[in-house]
């Protein structure tokens, strides 16, 4: 049995790496440091859209490649390697995927083709740690009326449509809301990794029936989407950790003390070996979760395990790589510091290792996830 990647998967990774290597560098990323400009490279985004990479997991009938979540995850891993300023997780994972899985055929045909072409930008409010939506809805003859807020939505001020869960009398509904709708107000946030996020306030915002994805039973969509967002964060973390490790390995092989490369010092060699083992463990756990999700199989346990590794590996690798670099590791003229910011941010996104470990332990104590 061949456990390697297919030719298509290899080609997709190669295409993504070539585009990102050509377009992203320390100098291009510096333009967004300290919020000098919104961290969104629209030219690169359009290049990725034109190449078809943004529509990897979108059905061909809607203008995508018709591939799966595994292929999308490999693309996101390459994004993590470059920490590219593009909204792939917001648009592709939290936007298009749940619409393709849960929306009606009419709504899919109206939204997914322009989203796959890059004519519109989507984002989803699935990143909050709250178990229940902080957005409430009342029924009206035309649809729903929304009041409340969504916290820390990525690329909310750049997006055209928001996919948001709302609390209704019957449970949870999920709706699409245009960002320029009357009653919608966004407040920009300054995140530690400089990616644009915003809190969104809704003041009696009307949603017509045509824009209601699910009138009830939205809990399933939220759980389904958050699992894929979590796995995507793990893939991004894998790419960033791998790049930081290689950066540190290259530096310690060239930097000399007492006439020899510092990589030959036993303590440095052991530190780098531990980082290598960490990254490879994260790689295996992440690919396992991506593969199962791509096959539409139960993967809650695997996603939780991958996120535990993503948090711990990001923490340990960021510290170790900075340490072996010495003062260079925190020098703003050297690119490592941006990766350390991303590794620490992703460590906490959608639940820290401690939170994920507690949730996994509770599931195992109930006898869940043992023999899936």
What is this structure's SSE topology?
Elements: H1 7-23, H2 26-30, H3 42-51, H4 69-82, H5 88-102, H6 105-117, E1 122-124, E2 135-140, E3 143-154, E4 161-168, E5 171-178, E6 184-189, E7 197-208, E8 212-214, H7 218-254, E9 256-257, E10 260-261, H8 266-294, H9 300-325, H10 336-348, H11 353-365
Parallel strand pairs: 1-4
Antiparallel strand pairs: 2-3, 3-7, 4-5, 5-8, 6-7, 9-10
Helix pairs in contact: 1-4, 4-7, 4-8, 5-6, 5-7, 7-8, 7-9, 7-10, 8-9, 9-10, 9-11
Give a structural overview.
With 372 residues, the chain is of the alpha+beta class. It folds into 3 domains: 7-120, Acyl-CoA dehydrogenase/oxidase, N-terminal domain (Butyryl-Coa Dehydrogenase, subunit A, domain 1, Orthogonal Bundle); 124-216, Butyryl-CoA Dehydrogenase, subunit A, domain 2, CATH 2.40.110.10; 219-365, Butyryl-CoA Dehydrogenase, subunit A, domain 3 (Up-down Bundle). Helix content is 52%, strand content 17%. It contains 11 helices and 10 strands. The strands form 3 sheets. Strands 1-4-5-8 form a 4-stranded mixed sheet, with helices on one face. Strands 2-3-7-6 form a 4-stranded antiparallel sheet, with no helix packed on it. A hairpin with a 7-residue loop joins β6 and β7. α1 runs parallel beside α4, α4 (69-82) packs across α7 and α8 packs antiparallel against α9. The longest helix is centred in the middle third of the chain and has 37 residues, at 218-254. The mean pLDDT is 95.
């Amino acid at each position: 049995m061949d456990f390697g990647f297919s030719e298509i998967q290899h080609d997709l990774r190669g295409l993504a790496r070539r585009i990102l290597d050509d377009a992203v560098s320390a100098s291009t990323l510096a333009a967004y440091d300290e919020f000098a400009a919104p961290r969104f490279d629209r030219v690169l985004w359009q290049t990725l859209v034109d190449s078809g990479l943004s529509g990897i997991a979108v059905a061909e009938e809607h203008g995508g490649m018709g591939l799966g979540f595994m292929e999308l995850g490999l693309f996101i891993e390459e994004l993590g390697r470059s920490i590219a300023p593009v909204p792939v997780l917001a648009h592709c994972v939290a936007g298009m995927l749940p619409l393709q899985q849960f929306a009606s055929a009419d709504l899919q045909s109206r939204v997914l083709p322009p989203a796959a072409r890059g004519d519109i930008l989507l984002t989803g409010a699935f990143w909050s740690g709250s178990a229940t939506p902080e957005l409430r809805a009342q029924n009206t003859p035309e649809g729903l009326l929304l009041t409340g807020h969504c916290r820390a939505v990525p690329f909310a001020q750049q997006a055209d449509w928001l996919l948001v869960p709302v609390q209704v009398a019957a449970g949870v509904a999920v709706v699409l809301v245009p960002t320029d709708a009357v009653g919608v107000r966004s407040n920009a946030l300054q995140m530690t990794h400089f990616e644009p996020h915003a809190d969104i306030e809704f003041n009696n915002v009307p949603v017509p029936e045509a824009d209601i994805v699910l009138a009830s039973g939205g809990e399933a969509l939220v759980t389904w989407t958050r699992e894929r967002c979590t796995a995507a964060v793990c893939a991004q973390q894998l790419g960033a950790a791998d790049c930081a490790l290689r950066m540190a390995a290259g530096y310690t092989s060239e930097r000399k003390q007492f006439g020899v490369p510092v990589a030959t010092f036993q303590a440095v060699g052991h530190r780098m070996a531990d980082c290598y083992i960490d990254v490879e463990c994260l790689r295996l756990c992440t690919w396992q979760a991506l593969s199962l999700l791509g096959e539409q199989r139960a993967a809650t346990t695997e996603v939780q395990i991958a996120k535990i590794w993503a948090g711990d590996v990001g923490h340990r690798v960021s510290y170790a790589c900075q340490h072996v670099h010495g003062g260079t590791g925190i020098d703003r003229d050297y690119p490592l510091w941006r990766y350390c910011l991303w590794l620490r941010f992703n460590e906490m996104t959608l639940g820290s290792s401690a939170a994920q470990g507690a949730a996994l332990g509770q599931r195992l104590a109930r006898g869940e996830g043992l023999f899936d």
